[in-house]
Amino acid sequence: MDHGPKTEKDMKKILTIAIVLLFSLTAFGQQESQFTNFVYNQQLYNPAYVGSRNTPSFTALHRSQWLGFEGAPNSQLISFQTPIMKQRAGLGGTIFRRGIGVSNNWLGSAAYSYNLRITQEIDLRLGIQASLEYLGVRFSDPSIITVTRNDPSANNGSYDDNYSANVGVGFHLSYKDLFYFGASSPQLYPNNLSFNDLSNTPAKAFPHRYFVLGAVIPATDDIEVMPNMLIKWVDQAPLDVDVNVMVRWKKMLTGGLTYRAGGNNTGDSMDLLLFYQFNQKIGAGLSYDFTLSDIKDYSSGSIELVARYDLRDEKGNLENPRYFKKK
Predict the structure, then answer these.
(1) Alpha carbon separation from 173 to 91, 228, 246, 276 (Å, rounded)
(2) Domain ranges within the chain, ordered by starting residue
(3) Rounded CA gap, 103 and 136, in Å?
(4) How high is the mean pLDDT of the chain?
(5) Residue 50 above 50 pLDDT?
(6) Residue of 214, 222, 280, 284 with fewest CB within 10 Å of its CB?
């Protein structure tokens, strides 16, 4: 026997969950998380990036998406990378968490890169990573309304989880401190997301491909212009592109604007970014996304925080705080 929602409160819960799930699938056209501060977070997308900063470095990020939505996505990340073998190779690790509604997603990855060093000015890094991912869903959460009694897909109101492993590859090419280009696939094959064996066509997490490029263009002695682009491609979904332009003043204060296409006519968001390099070791920034898609009628935007700590010896030679490479 079917038992439908009986109150206005139940209807609002169903509407909220439906909208969140709908836009999670269509607005991004992808299953992996995105960050507005992708310039400072390339390790998440590309294992070849580890070691490229030529100093041991920590990065932490927090993203609250679609403010005002109950159960909207929120993500946290912490990563570490360091050069080894006299900077000819790099090691790194990432721990990532994302929550959407009643689901929790955790990912841990370890990456290795090797620098082929094409010339004295051109570096080509090849990278590989291994990852372990966890997905858990609280079917017993009171916000879940079961329309059909004993629905097997809801696992009878309990808590269910799924574990999966994968490997990824990438390359990262840089010229001095002036230009970089990278291409990668953090996961090479689809992972099964099913919680039981009842379906002949289980849900899958499809591999994502990322292409990122950027440059530093000196405008004056104190001002540099830094254009960047991130292209995200996954099978059976629209191509997604982030186009970013930042301006840095005296190698300390950086401000920028990003347009995220999102695979629709109007675009997904227009984003403002700020980053401040307090000293040779510590930098921090924030961004705010102004939603352009239809979800703007339900949300007041998204906010993101980023912090970076480099274990650089401040008594040594001061170096420019390049955002993608340091010599």
Answers:
(1) 17, 14, 21, 26
(2) 8-310
(3) 6
(4) 83
(5) yes
(6) 222
Token pair belonging to 40: 């400072």
The answer to whether 256 and 250 have CB atoms below 8 angstroms apart is no
Place of tokens 């590309």: 46
Measured on CA atoms in the order 216, 247, 213, 63, is the torsion positive or negative?
positive
Average pLDDT over residues 250-265: 90
- Give the position of tokens 């996954």: 234
Give the DSSP letter string of 209-235. EEEEEEE-EE-SSSEEEEEEEEEEEET
Cα–Cα distance for residue pair 95/104, rounded to 1 Å: 13
Which residues make Cβ contacts (< 8 Å) with residue 87, sequence separation at least 6? 51, 54, 115
CATH number given to 8-310: 2.40.160.40
Which of 14, 23, 31, 10 lies closest to 299 in space, CA to CA? Answer: 23
For the chain, the first-to-last Cα distance in angstroms comes to: 68
Scan for tokens 């997301």, then name that residue.
193
> Nearest-CA neighbor of 152 among 106, 91, 86, 196?
196
Give residue 200's pLDDT band: very low, low, confident or very high (50, 70, 90).
Answer: low
Alpha-carbon span 103 to 19, nearest angstrom: 15
DSSP class per residue in 269-301: EEEEEEEEE-SSSEEEEEEEEEE-SGGGGT---
Q: Which residue has the higher pLDDT, 239 or 224?
A: 224
Position 17 scores a pLDDT of: 46
pLDDT of residue 21: 44
Q: Which parts of the chain are beta strand (E)?
A: 57-64, 74-84, 89-100, 103-115, 122-138, 159-175, 179-185, 191-192, 204-205, 208-215, 217-218, 223-234, 240-249, 253-260, 269-277, 282-291, 302-310
